[in-house]
Design goal:
heterodimer, A: mainly alpha, elongated, B: 1 helix, about 60% helix
Chain lengths: ~260, ~60
């Protein structure tokens, strides 16, 4: 099945029906393995057991940016290729991305209090991620504010692409500015700075959360397609009612004019 | 085997609990939304409002 085939929402629904149970099962298995490995990971020589927060914080932080990246590609699909499912994908991803970003901020804050002595600091990394969270909320509000999905899609696509400027700012904020947040320790030049005992559970958890996102995203896309079918059927129903009341009004007028003529 | 979480256990437990809660809310939202949309489509179809293709709107194939 190619990307063109998936442009047909009915085919896409058939695909999600087949794929979703397998994706959900794979997510549960990977999450179980990841959580087990995270529980067995040793304490850090400086941070102690609080290093375990990393196994939930980092995957959520990665996904907060990854989801916006997915939405940016979908936005290009809306504006450039006019793929029928592109705006469905972008709209469905926003609440999931917002939830992951919220978790990144919350778990980061809970990790920061024992390690930095504060829940929050207005430094470049934390502030740019907070801006990302607010952009997710703004995008969700925009989708709700405009009734017509195709008009909302174009406005949301432009906003998403403008917001993508924030992604490199988040990524390199720890290098460009002096921040309380530590610099990159996994994806960096010269390889990961993490020991395998931390790196492997972290990668398993990251993969598990990514699969969780893919599963939730496909399910949310399926829901969005069904929501649009509800909308179009409701519009058909409304136009039928309007048509039949027009007909009834027309026949009443005809009868009235005939009666007037007869009189 | 017991796992010792040290003096900051509450922060670690709160992080995992928050993640579990938010993920549960996401899963619940997706499942409830699916149920709502399929129910609304069935109600519309029962009222005789069908797609131009004549196929059921909840039918994936």
């Amino acid at each position: 099945m190619t990307l063109i085939d998936l442009a047909n929402p009915t085919r896409f629904l058939a695909l999600t029906t087949r794929v979703l149970p397998w994706l959900a099962a794979a997510t549960v298995v990977l999450l179980t393995i990841g959580l087990y490995q995270a529980a067995l990971a040793p304490d850090d020589y400086q941070q102690g057991a609080t290093v375990k927060i990393m196994f939930v914080h980092v995957p959520n932080a990665w996904l907060s940016m990854f989801v916006w990246g997915v939405m940016s590609i979908a936005s290009l699909g809306t504006l450039v290729w006019r793929h029928p499912l592109a705006d469905v994908a972008a709209k469905a991803a926003a609440p999931i991305g917002a939830a992951f970003t919220f978790l990144a901020l919350l778990t980061g804050s809970l990790w920061g209090r024992p390690m930095w002595g504060t829940y929050w600091e207005w430094d470049a990394r934390l502030t740019s991620v907070l801006i990302l969270f607010l952009m997710y909320l703004g995008l969700m509000a925009l989708w709700r504010a405009v009734d017509d999905p195709s008009r909302a899609a174009r406005a949301a696509a432009v906003l998403t692409l403008v917001g993508a400027i924030n992604l490199p700012i988040i990524k390199f904020s720890v290098d460009w500015w002096n921040t309380l947040h530590q610099p990159a320790s996994v994806m960096r030049m010269g390889g990961s700075a993490l020991d395998k005992s931390f790196l492997i559970p972290l990668l398993v958890m990251a993969l598990a959360f990514t699969l969780l996102f893919v599963t939730l995203h496909l399910a949310a896309m399926r829901n969005e397609i069904l929501r649009r079918r509800v909308r179009s059927l409701q519009m058909m129903q409304a136009s039928r009612i309007a048509f039949s009341s027009d007909m009834a009004a027309g026949s009443r007028e005809d009868n009235a004019s005939k009666e007037a003529g007869a009189a | 085997m017991t796992m010792s979480l040290g003096p900051y256990a509450s922060f670690i437990v709160a992080s995992y609990a928050a993640a579990a809660l938010v993920v549960a809310i996401l899963i619940g939202w997706v499942m409830l939304d699916y149920r709502n949309q399929t129910q609304r489509l069935r109600e519309l179809e029962q009222r005789g409002i069908t797609r131009r293709s004549g196929r059921s709107a909840t039918e994936p194939r």
